[in-house]
Amino acid sequence: MTDTILLRDDRDGIATLTLNTPGSLNALSDAMLAALKGTFAALAEDRSVRVVILKGAGKAFCAGHDLKEMQAGRQAADKGRAYFADLFARCAEVMQMIPALPQPVIAEVHGIATAAGCQLVASCDMAVAAEGTRFGVNGVNIGLFCSTPMVALTRNVPRKVAFEMLTTGQFIDAARAAEVGLVNHVVSHDALAAETRALAETVAGKLTAAVKIGKRAFYDQIEMTRAEAYDHAAAVMVENMLWRDTEEGISAFLEKRKPDWS
């Protein structure tokens, strides 16, 4: 089932993952969360992959949690309390695996990204969206405040923008998403795959070890005070500067040639 609902295609150091349940708008079902968790765990150990692209099949990126499964969970004696607690814990684990991956993860977004689907975009390191894509944390429209998607959203967009989205349930378009920092680039639908691939190839062409250490430091320093962040970042740069490949990269730049990285 994992191979069916989540496709993986590796080419030239770039792994493309496709959420592949278009009939449910690629909802984050129990099976999809399990597939993502297993694939992310495998990618964390895969040194051949330098960048990850995450996309959705069909007419949407991801519509969030599977509401039919959630309603079915209510049939338990506790009215679903244990199931819901487990579901949101599993989803949070998957979302947190993305920034923890050594490889940068780029969301390739089209159609809609709603609720936990918007959370998935916000959890990725970068995002490219097609014109016309709509983003929302719209659970409030059905009486469910998007509290867990809020965690990732508020770490991407300004506070007041996030609060308005969460309390009104209104969608923002791709242009507004770029304006507030939820996505990096907005392109035509026809150019979406090519532009996302081009961004991935640019990152994949850098020294992999430097991107890896930099990504880890990026997320570590965000949680620190300014003084702690500077101390931590300085220590990371010292370690980075002592690498043979960094010495070679600087020498190549000064000598106006391509670096011979190992």
Concise synopsis of the structure shown:
It contains twelve helices and nine strands. By secondary structure, the protein is an alpha/beta fold. The strands form two sheets. A six-stranded mixed beta sheet has the order 1-2-3-4-6-9, sandwiched between helices. A three-stranded mixed beta sheet has the order 5-7-8.
Describe the structure.
- The chain is α/β, with parallel strands linked by helices.
- It has 2 domains: 2-204, 2-enoyl-CoA Hydratase, Chain A, domain 1; 208-254, Lyase 2-enoyl-coa Hydratase, Chain  A, domain 2 (Orthogonal Bundle), CATH 1.10.12.
- Helices cover 51% and strands 15% of the residues.
- The chain has helices spanning 2-5, 30-44, 67-73, 81-100, 116-123, 147-153, 159-168, 174-180, 192-204, 208-222, 226-241, 244-254; strands at residues 6-11, 14-19, 51-56, 105-109, 112-114, 126-130, 134-136, 172-173, 185-187.
- The strands form 2 sheets. A 6-stranded mixed sheet has the order 1-2-3-4-6-9, with helices on both faces. The chain has a 3-stranded mixed sheet with strand order 5-7-8.
- Strand 2, helix 2 and strand 3 (51-56) form a beta-alpha-beta unit.
- It is globular and about 65 Å long.
- The two termini are 38 Å apart.
